Amino acid sequence: MRVKQRVDIDVNYDCADSTGTYNLYWQTLDIDFNIEKEVHYVEPSGSCGGNTPCYLTIQEAIDAAGSRATIKIAEGRYYEDLTLSSPKVLTLQGGWDTAFTTRTSNTTVDSLSISSGTVTAEYLICQ
């Protein structure tokens, strides 16, 4: 969701002009920002039920993700040692069916190492 916000700032410089009159200054800023998280998909066959962007491995999706992203991962076993070493805020959602319409199971990975950033894991097993 893109949000366009208008912010009015009342700034009183508390100074007089040459006539001794104090002036009040008003400034309006238009700020445009995106509050929507990116969504990436991971499925070993690379189809991801037609959803894009689609990755074959979870690590590829982690590396491609921006500063805030959700990574939806198809159920099953992934022989990966996942690492996050950048200040990203990621949600790893495991257990999705291959069409990414329902979560019916778990996703299993070898390990998850975080040296920087934040990860929220759902339906994800490390073993």
Structural class: mainly beta
Give the end-to-end Cα distance, rounded to a whole number of Å. 37 Å
Number of domains: 2
Radius of gyration, CA atoms, in whole angstroms: 23 Å
Instruction: Calculate the mean pLDDT score and round it.
Output: 85
Uncertain segments are none
Protein name: DUF1565 domain-containing protein
Note down, in words, how this protein is organized.
- The protein has 127 residues and is mainly β.
- The chain contains one helix and eight strands.
- This is DUF1565 domain-containing protein.
- InterPro entries: Pectin_lyas_fold, Pectin_lyase_fold/virulence.
Detail the topology: elements first, then pairings.
Elements: E1 2-11, E2 25-34, E3 38-42, E4 54-55, H1 58-64, E5 68-74, E6 76-96, E7 107-122, E8 124-126
Parallel strand pairs: 3-4, 3-5, 5-6, 6-7, 7-8
Antiparallel strand pairs: 1-2
Protein name: DUF1565 domain-containing protein
InterPro entries: Pectin_lyas_fold, Pectin_lyase_fold/virulence
Organism: Candidatus Desulfacyla euxinica
